[in-house]
Amino acid sequence: MTNGFYKNRRLKTFLFFAVCLFVSSIPHLIHLKNFFLISVLISILISCYGLNIISKNTKRAFSATTNKTIVEEELPVLDILVAARDEENVIERLVDRLFNLDYPSNKLNIYIIDDGSVDKTPLILEKLSRDFEKLKIISRSSNAGGGKSGALNYALKFTHGEWVLILDADAQLKKDTLHRLFDFVNEGDWSAVQLRKSVININQNFLTTCQSMEMAMDAIFQYGRLYVAGVSELRGNGQLINKEVLLKCGSFNEDTVTDDLDLSLRLLLSKSKIGILWDPPVMEEAVENLSALFSQRQRWAEGGLQRFFDYGDQLFSKKIDFIQKFDVTYFFILQYALPIISMIDLILSIAFFESPCYWPISITAFTLSGIAVWYGSSCKSEGPVLKKLNLIMMLVSLLYLSHWFLVIPWVTIKMSIFPKKILWKKTLHTGV
């Protein structure tokens, strides 16, 4: 991607921030008499659609069948790809568990991409290659470029399966996950499937507990969006993709910091369906400190914005349906515009000694999140047990989610000012 394209992203980000600033300032500068009523009406619209999405979860099956409905002869050839950089704490556990999955060995290929590791990862992989004859190790230099996307694209050249399953190095799967996953694919005719992400170290501390509730909330919204508007997203770890569909979409974008979010929009534009599977989950480590959390969330926020600025014109073309356009716009506003508008609104309120103007909308968004957190945490689930919520834990989870109201404005300002270099900022896995 050219430098000109990066500048275009910066310009789009600046314009987006300017629009948010304008919208935030209007009620403070003009003092519209009926603005509170307008804000309430917008909140009602937001709540109606949000509650409709959440309600769809009451009708769904929470897990794929544990009975093998596909005979082994009909199972497709599957390639598991893991891009690993400096994963000495978890890579041995991962490989051992992958080779213990219940799947025909002649139809399962496991590729570990050592993407320029400088720790003991290469030595551990060399030892594992002697223990597991079918383990395929692909090595890239540290300056090969493209980050995780580059590593995955390079590995795709060596694959020959019909499907690819992308995992992170800290991933853990139940032994029967692959059978159940393809049962789900067979029933729904999906082009891709995202497993619900579940936190392994759920009881490590306050942050890991909150992240487990956040992942449950995310899965609730994902499922509801899929069955209301046909819009759903991949989440990087635990994503199964039909290889032919992946190649037609252009594989993994090496000019973004979140390959999964970028690919999700391209799949939507190509009318390829992404299924969401609650159980079995893919289990992974949550980050354990504030520094790691904000570093991770900044990357997610930046990648989320990048995809909208890259494909925004296509999202309002005839490639997707009206309800899909509405859904994408709805969540873009709530996830990216509202945090900026709310923060500027708060700053202006303090400066002018006035009450915030957009608080009904912010409260509505937090309420919907709280309902989804409660419902997601109450659902029966495999993997680590989710925390049962009381009123205090509900309020605590909402306080935790408010970090997005700091992350989104900060990332937007940074993207408006500084040119972006695509770097792999990996999450440290401790092997808990």
Structure description:
The chain is α/β, with parallel strands linked by helices. The chain has one domain (1-63, 190-432). The protein has helices at residues 3-30, 35-55, 91-98, 121-131, 147-156, 177-188, 206-229, 243-248, 259-269, 290-315, 322-352, 359-378, 391-401, 404-417, and strands at 78-84, 108-115, 135-140, 163-167, 192-199, 239-242, 274-284. The chain has a seven-stranded mixed β-sheet, sandwiched between helices. β1, α3 (91-98) and β2 form a beta-alpha-beta unit. α2 packs parallel to α12 (359-378), α7 crosses α13 (391-401) and α11 packs across α12 (359-378). The protein is globular and about 75 Å long. Mean pLDDT is 90; it is low at 1-6.
The neighbouring-strand order within the major sheet is 3-2-1-4-6-5-7
Class by alpha and beta content: alpha/beta
Number of helices: 14
Poorly predicted regions are: 1-6
SSE run: HHEHEHEHEHEHEHHEHHHHH
Major sheet details: 7 strands, mixed
The helix content is 40-55%
Shape: globular
- Overall residue-averaged pLDDT value: 90
Number of strands: 7
Number of domains: 1
What fraction of the residues are assigned to beta strands by DSSP? 5-15%
**Head-to-tail CA distance between termini:** 38 Å
Rg for CA atoms: 22 Å
